[in-house]
Each structure stands twice: as structure tokens, then as C-alpha cells.
Predict the structure.
Amino acid sequence: MTAVDLPQTFGALLIGGLFAAVLTGAVAVQVVVYFKLYPLDPPRIKVLVLVIWFLDIAHTLFVCVALFQYLISYFGNAEMIDHITWSLTLTVVFTAVLTFLVHCFLAQRIWRLSHHNWYLTIPIITLAVLRLASASTSTAEMFSLRSFTAFKAHFRWLFTLGLTLSSAVDIIITGSLFFLLHGSRTEMGRLNLVIDSLIRYSFETGLLTCAGTIATMLSVRWS
């Protein structure tokens, strides 16, 4: 039996699973608040919110299944630490689909705010599609290889590319929203307060998601 660094393997997986569960709870609260505050929103927006909520719950469930497999089913079997389970593999593609839907929604908002500026919107959509394709290919290869060692040796660059594209999309979206909203300021003080709140919200959420993606990318790079 080979030596296993538990804190950097099972420990990291456990901490990640706990964070995923906490964030899923936060998303659930946001969904409930959304339906209470915006009952008149178009049905397509409500459906999008529910789909994103479902994908987030499914992602966390797959993480929990992976934790059970590694910590319970494979307990004491050091060789299985290199095995990529189906549940952990599915978290990659579910995250990619969820991120793609959010990026497309924000791209539509930017398209409207920019008065149908395709030169600004098309790069966002293109990078989002490439990020989805990269994650989907990574998922397929993980299903095929079922080994972390083999995947890192041949396709770590592809996984890192997907994270890099995701960070790039987040940065472009945040910057675009910042400049478009700032350009919408008027001489009306109350309206400017609302716009300033939207600018701050866009910057904080964009910065948070980008920082999380970069942290994941660095972890993959140095693992």
C-alpha cells in the first residue's frame, strides 16, 4: 500500500464538499428571496433560475456521492485515491453547464445595455462556448482514463484552459457592466444611487467568481 497524504487528498475533497454544501444553501435562500421579490418577472427568467438551482443542487449531490465513495467505500484502499469516480467527473460538466447559462444571461444583459453591440457581446459568447467545450472534453477524458495521474499527464492543460477561459469571461463581463452602467449615470441623484448599487454588485460578484476560478486554476497547476 502506497503512502497517502490525507490532508492534501481526502482532506481537500472534504473541505471542498463542505463549502459546496454551504454555497448550495446560500443559493437556495437567494432563489426563495427572488421569487418573493420578483413575482412579475417573465417565465423564461423564472425557468432559468430554477434550472440553475437544479444544476447547483445536482452538483452538490455528486460531490457528496464522491465523498462517500472515497471516504467510506474505498476506505483503506490507497490505490483508489488515483481513481476518478463517475460522481466526481460529473461535477465538472454540471459546473460548466451552469456557468455557461449564467454567462449567456449576462451576455444578453450586456447586449441590451450596449444597444445591441455585437462587437462586445460576440467575444463573450465565443469564450463561453469554448469554456463549455473544454470542460465537456475534460469530462469525456476523465470518464475514459479514470485516473488522475493519466489525466494530469495528458489533459491537465485542457482543464486549465477551461478555467482560464472562465476567468477571462468573468473579467470581460465585469468590465463591460462597469463601463456600461457608469455610462448610464444621469443628473438624477436617486437613479444614480441605484446605478451605483448595480455597479458595486456587478464588481463584487464578478470579482468573487473570478477569484474562485483563479484559485482553482492555481491549485490544479501546482497539484
User: Anything to note?
Assistant: The helical segments are 10-37, 43-73, 86-113, 118-145, 148-182, 189-222. The mean pLDDT is 84. The longest helix spans residues 148-182.
